Amino acid sequence: MDLSIKERLDNSKLPRHVAIIMDGNGRWAARHGSARIFGHEHGIEAVRSVIEGAGEVGIGYLTLYAFSTENWSRPREEVDGLMSLLVYAIDSETVNLMKNNVRLGVIGDMKMLPRRVREKLESCIEKLKDNTGLTVILAISYSAKWEITEAVKKMVSDATRERIDPSQITNELFESYLSTKGIPDPELLIRTSGEYRLSNFLLWQIAYAELYFTDILWPDFRKEDLFEALLNFQNRERRFGMTSEQIAG
Ligand code: FPP
Fold it and tell me: Which helix (H) or strand (E) holds 105?
């Protein structure tokens, strides 16, 4: 009997953290002769399936790029639609997330968000805070350059107040100023829709991530596609700058 992709996964070789650039909602909508927001609405089904799948196999952290800093420049109607969709999705999914023992986190410039979105996020994070399974991190109003610039501002301010010594700055200290503080770096980054870009996402944190691109448009992506990406990840040799012989040894 053929094993399913999920059964072929080696549970001891799973990435602790998977990050996803959910792309292709607009093209999916166009293919269905609908407005872009229709694609985003269907994107929620993919989000639900992937969260379920990540929980089933025991991934620790799943970061989803839901809205970039640059997305604020989209037509007003689409931005408003996406904000309403976020509120709706959080509202309707909280019970399910609770049932699946999921914790929620958020990274991004929360000041930019409409109050109703911020408050909804905060209340959902609070409700799920004692869960112990998968942590889902939504990147909203997020960009890596924004995050790194913010980190530098805080560091310079702390150095000026003599809270840190510039000569003692290390990778680890810098990381403690990022919004992903305390979260392991993603080992696998997935981008859907056949685009080969990083789009200002987690640039510091993905220094050694494996990159996986698929042509599937985000609204069609399901947990089986996540398992396929995980299987592909497990068949790669991660060398971290060393040689194959060193890794084998
Ligand atoms: C990219 O597709 C997708 C987005 C900018 C938004 C992602 C949002 C969702 C999947 C829905 C809500 C999310 C959560 C976490 C509840 P695109 O619009 O750039 O597609 P295109 O490249 O085909 O135009």
Answer: strand 103-107
In this predicted model, what pLDDT tens digit does every residue of 175-194 receive, in sequence order?
999 999 999 999 999 999 99
Catalytic residue, chosen from 11, 71, 109, 158, is 71
Q: What's the gap in Å between 246 CA and the centre of ligand 1?
A: 41
Type and span of the H or E element at 52: helix 36-57
193 CB burial (10 A radius; 0-12, 13-18, 19+): buried
pLDDT at 229: 98
pTM: 0.96
Q: Which helix (H) or strand (E) holds 18?
A: strand 17-21
Q: Say if ligand 1 is within 6 A of residue 103 CB.
A: no
40 lines ligand 1 (CB under 6 A): yes
Mutate to test the pocket of ligand 1, among 23, 50, 138, 214 (most ligand atoms within 8 A of CB): 23
Domain boundaries, the chain: 14-143+186-233
Determine phi and psi for 91, rounding to 5 degrees: -60, -50
| CATH class of domain segment(s) 14-143+186-233 | alpha beta
Active-site residue, 130 included: no
pLDDT per residue as tens digits for the range 100-130: 999 999 999 999 999 999 999 999 999 999 9
Amino acid letter, 136: V
